[in-house]
Design goal:
alpha/beta, 35% helix, 20% strand, disordered N terminus, binds (2S)-amino(hydroxy)ethanoic acid, binds manganese (II) ion
């Protein structure tokens, strides 16, 4: 019988309330500022892509912070970091945390907030002198972003299904470095940590994250109970042409890879019109975020253009239609067989979190917002993907959101009010303490 399906008893809720009341806003703010210095940018953003030297230094910082709180630090074959606070009984732990890697130009809170709020929950439990029945583990997942090595959420998806790791090891970054080689260097740097088995039983998982969108701010609500995550698919399209001289080559005889790529891009952008989707119809969102042109010279006709396609929608059938349209456009614009290839390298169906997890989270958020005289929590789905989408295959899982200022993320200007960051950590403390007490 997993924890999340048992009704909360008064004793567990009293413990949860004490944990919530020992969360310290200044301690959390200091922890966020300290981690943001690893890869901190002059524009206020953070550049800390996964398994770079900066990321390894940040990992070491987190290990030191966790050990200072009395946690045991462990890792696994995918470099995920686990910080464990023992419970009275050695039962499957309650898991919280998120990721510490960022986009190439990221912010201070995407992922980092969930990891540091998890450590703040440990600090609050220590300050309150609470011994929970179950152990609590705070995780920092490897490569959630997927921007350096694709796909995203490698650490969490490999934890849940270790067979995925072998294929991930061969993923390469734009400089040609293999994920496996960068991972082995990270594991060597954390050889002092216990190597834990993957897919370990967890009794429940709660991830706290910034919303990265406009919904909570638009509603004037500081806490979101996340009911699910929209589907995501990533593709790489390779258009092959023939390099030639920009001045001497007549238009009629060119095999211009960029002309093909632009024609395909224009067709698929038409699948996702900018005018808002009809009310009640889930919006299809398309992003062609990474382009590579060879030889990338002003006066040579491109011989090879590669670009990525990120497709998102709550309705998986809509993604099926969009994928079919992408593949058809690639066939239509290929000047010869194999002149255009499409590779899908990330595919995750919509995630729906169980009601049994939404209940304790709703209680936790309501108590925190009531105490602060703020608006009660609202339910919403996540436009961004998160590690919780894979943990949902492993144990009862759900998420808590706090607002993003202007709905901005994956941008140096990413920001969230300190008061909202504090409320989110309070809600997390209540939820984790309650789940770890039953
Ligand atoms: O792309 C995403 O949705 C996540 O923020 N990495
Ligand atoms: Mn994130
Ligand atoms: Mn992100």
């Amino acid at each position: 019988m997993t924890v999340a399906h048992q009704p909360a008893d008064a004793a567990a809720q009293a413990i949860a309330a004490r944990a919530q009341d020992h969360v310290d806003a200044a301690r959390l703010a200091a922890a966020l500022a300290a981690l943001a210095r690893f890869g901190g940018r002059d524009d206020g953003g953070v550049s800390r892509e996964t398994l770079t030297d900066i990321d390894l230094a940040a990992r070491r910082h987190l290990i030191e912070q966790a050990r200072a709180l009395g946690c045991e630090a462990g890792t696994d074959d995918c470099g995920n970091l686990f910080f464990r606070r023992p419970g009275r009984e050695d039962l499957p732990p309650v898991l919280t945390g998120s990721h510490a890697d960022t986009q190439p130009v990221g912010g201070k809170y995407d992922g980092a907030y969930g990891v540091l709020a998890g450590l703040e929950v440990i600090a609050a439990l220590n300050a309150a002198g609470i011994d929970t029945l179950r152990p609590i583990e705070v995780v920092s997942w490897t490569n959630e972003e997927g921007s350096r090595f694709g796909p995203g959420a490698m650490g969490s998806s490999a934890f849940v299904d270790p067979a995925r790791l072998i294929g991930y090891r061969d993923a390469t970054d734009p400089a040609g470095i293999r994920f496996g080689d960068a991972l082995d260097a990270a594991l060597a740097a954390s050889a002092d940590l216990a190597r834990l088995p993957m897919a370990r039983p967890m009794s429940a998982c709660v991830e706290l994250h910034i919303e990265q969108g406009p919904v909570l701010e638009g509603a004037g609500v500081p806490l979101g109970v996340v009911t699910g995550i929209q589907a995501v698919r990533w593709f790489r399209v390779d258009c092959m042409g023939t390099m030639a001289h920009a001045g001497t080559t007549p238009m009629a005889v060119r095999r211009d890879a960029m002309a093909v790529a632009v024609a395909i891009a224009q067709e698929i952008y038409a699948l996702a019109p900018r005018d808002a989707a009809a009310p009640g119809t889930p919006e299809l969102r398309l992003t062609l975020g990474r382009w590579a042109v060879t030889p990338n010279s002003v006066n040579t006709i491109p011989g090879h253009v590669a670009f990525t396609v990120d497709m998102r929608c709550l309705d998986d059938a809509a993604l099926d239609r969009a994928e079919a349209a992408l593949r058809a456009a690639c066939v239509r614009h290929a000047s010869a067989p194999e002149a255009v290839t499409v590779t899908r390298f990330f595919h995750r169906a919509p995630t729906h979190f169980p009601e049994a997890m939404l209940d304790p989270i709703e209680r936790a958020c309501s108590r925190a917002s009531d105490n602060a005289g703020r608006a009660r929590p609202m339910r919403l789905t996540s436009g961004a993907f998160h590690d919780a989408m894979y943990l949902a295959d492993h144990c009862p899982t759900a998420m808590i959101f706090v607002p993003s200022r202007g709905g901005i993320s994956h941008n140096a200007a990413e920001d969230t009010d300190g008061a909202d960051l504090f409320l989110g950590a309070q809600a997390l403390a209540y939820t984790v303490a309650e789940l770890a007490s039953r």
